[in-house]
Amino acid sequence: MNIKDTVSKIKSGKQSCRELLDEYIPVILDGQEKLNTYITLLLDSAKERAESLDARIAAGDSSGDLLGIPVAIKDNMMLSGTRTTCGSKILENYISPYTATAVGKLIDAGAVIVGKTNMDEFAMGSSGETSFFGPARNPNDPDRIPGGSSSGSAACVADSQVMGSLGSDTGGSIRQPAAMCGVVGMKPTYGYVSRYGLVAFASSLDQIGPFASNVEDAARIFTVIAGFDEKDSTSIAPGESDFVRWVHEKGMKLKIGIPREYMGGGLSGEIHNRIADTARRLERSGFEIKDISLPLTKYAVAAYYIVAPAEASANLARYDGVKYGYRTPSPDDLLEEYKVSRQEGFGDEVKRRIMIGTYALSSGYYDAYYLKAQRVRRLMERDFQEAFGDVDIILSPTSPTTAFKLGEKTQDPLQMYLSDIYTISCNLVGLPGINVPVGKDSAGLPIGAQLIAPWRCDGKLLYAARQVEKIYE
Amino acid sequence: MNSGGYETVIGLEVHVHLKTQTKMFCRCRNLFGAQPNTHVCPVCTGQPGVLPVANGKAIEQAARAGLALGCRINSESVFARKQYFYPDLPKNYQISQYERPIAEKGHIMLGDRKINITRAHLEEDAGKLIHAESDVSLVDYNRTGTPLLEIVSEPEIDSPQEAAEYLKELRQVLRYCGISDCDMEKGSMRCDANVSLRKKGSKELGVKTELKNMNSFKAVEKALEYEIKRQEKVLGEGGRITQETRLWNEDKGTTRSMRSKEEAHDYRYFPEPDLPRLVIEAEKIKSIRDSIPELPAARRRRYIVQTGLSEYDAGVLTQEKEISDYFDAACGMLGDKSSENIKKLANWITVELLGKLNAEGSGFREDVISPPHMAELVGYIGAGTISGKMGKDIFEIMYNKGVSPGEVIREKGLKQITDGDQISAVCREVIESSPDIVDKYMQGKDGVLGVLVGNVMKKTRGQANPAMVNAKLRELMGRRQ
Fold first, then answer.
1. Which candidate from A200, A233, A362 shows the least CB-CB separation from B49?
2. Is position A285 annotated as part of the catalytic site?
3. How far apart are CA B298 and CA B326, in angstroms?
4. Does B143 lie in the same domain as B125?
């Protein structure tokens, strides 16, 4: 049952919010044990919340597009009074003093938050394995990674522990785990969802988005969380208040481009064939398919691994043991307090990126690295603009491989970074992108197709996603 | 300034707190002197996940300052992160402006000397560290995020005295525009000074040192004087100046090295990704420009050229905008606007009113004697209705009771006696009762006339018109001769 029908059932009194939650709780507890999906479970407060919603409904107020819907949020989003760890030892005991705008919107729409999901430390990772709290596992095969960094948010939806969740996507952290777990995961246009209360990784790339088991539910959650926020100076008004209607749109013809740079070396053969097959079937449904080129794709990973670490090195400077978070027990002096607290509080991947970013911004290197990477971003923007002069939507694989084994790539950061090769460009340019499951490979692991739409065409993106989804229903 | 064949090159970096209701990037109150950590929020304490939202009023104040200093306002400027670790800086970076500041290329006139201003940029202040006990330091985040404007001069100031003059003029302009209190003791104005020496006539700049920790204009002057002497000595002995930051020690009257160039921070500036470019429309710039009042230099010129005041009086009257506004208001209410009367008014304000307020240790207040009352008082004196001496007595009563001079005169019957017959009668009495003095006068000792005048004034309780008394006495004694 999708979100809409579930909400109708609650509104009509056929089921209470508490009854609905009680159906989910055993699945959540079971999943948590098997898959380590959550860093913090909020079942007590969820029960209270469900009951208070029921009381509200009894009193005649049954408003809210997500009324009673159990959802989870990634543990890098603030929910007042709950722990927000970001998957890190350095924030192990940090209690949110306020609530993120997007999370507040979920609550206002009647959602019931059941927990804060596991993630790569500070969202830095593509497998979930950099989490201080141990990796989350893939529901399709617990020996495999669920993808990352929004590992738990993807896994909990794939495992039917919740009807939807929020993740954040800086270089593919929603779309890639969605592909690996076999669910829908959307990264909206940069600015459509407020970042206020999302712990920053790379400010110019971070964007919150929904996970759901189908496109319509994703569109519904996205509609709830989107909107201009005066607390986020980079936020923009989407200019429309209902994205669900795009899912039900019919007969709109699209020209779909497949960038040849996304179909080349490094891509698994099975995924390549599935995407080509998806294209053929779309063509048969009456969509025009076009071979296109995004020549600057080869620079995306390089530019990303300058810009993201550079911004991260500044964003993570505040974790110093002085105000909150982990502080080394008995430092000799201030410098020691800084150094040892950070040394002990951060994991290797985070330290690696802080060092890369600090180096890239250093005097004498700034022009050669950071400034050049920013120029690449602007050129890539032009690349996409040209492509979108020709086509309405871009179709590609989401990830070059399906879910790999735990530990398989942890010793090789570069291989790990390449896992995001197809998703990174969207973040660098600010475009909306979405993962839609397109069946499984021979090993039974989900394959994901990525769709990319022009800037601010999130509605069209959801329409196209629905068309792909239909093929595999 | 030059001595020993060297000339001095000084550049100043001045930070001023902008007057706003709220902080630069959050909506906490911008207040001085509150209980520690009572005006803080997730944003200004650098909690995870927070985002800055720029304060429109602070931007306006910065643009106003730029315009008042003759700067070009950049229609687009960029916020940047300046990174360094310190416990008073919660994010461990400060949001500032680097490559494209809000204002560039202005100047300040010191008489005929033009000191160019390189740039003025917006930023947020850090908190305050309190080193309470030997092994404990406390931090107060109330000040964190206070809007600051940093104003950087070209290295064109050539003496410690000129540096102090520059600061005074800058403070005056900023206070006139209501941009900042510019109170160095409260920290709402801070000044770092870069100073170097070079051989007289040389075009190249010498190696500079940066002086910090001066808490008054006087301290800036003294620190520069000390540092110039120190550098002269080093150079004179054939040594080299080390580029470094030096701290002024007010008690010892010396500077000491704080960190060398090698130890200097690499701030790793980069554009603040959480804030879009700061755009100010031409229309907005125009409306800010229109809101700038007549500045002190223009007022001084007007007072000197149009009203014939001395440079000194013009300087005293314009030292604060409130005084100058007061003078202008009272001046407008003078019935007789002769230059003599205006000068009288200037005197009454600078000597009597300011003297009294200063003696009480209070700043300028216009409510003790309102501009119309002051104009009325000067009017009576100018018209000869009361003497200057009586004026002072009346002023005293006005000052204490807030009444108009007309009321005081009516109540106390203090009107000057200008009736010729009345004066004549008193003068006769005095002459008759002082034959010795009259004799001396007759013998040609003109000086004793004053004694007789004084006696007449005593008898009339100071109300007789002194000029008339003088003339009448001469006339009467002349007749007797």
1. A200
2. no
3. 16
4. yes
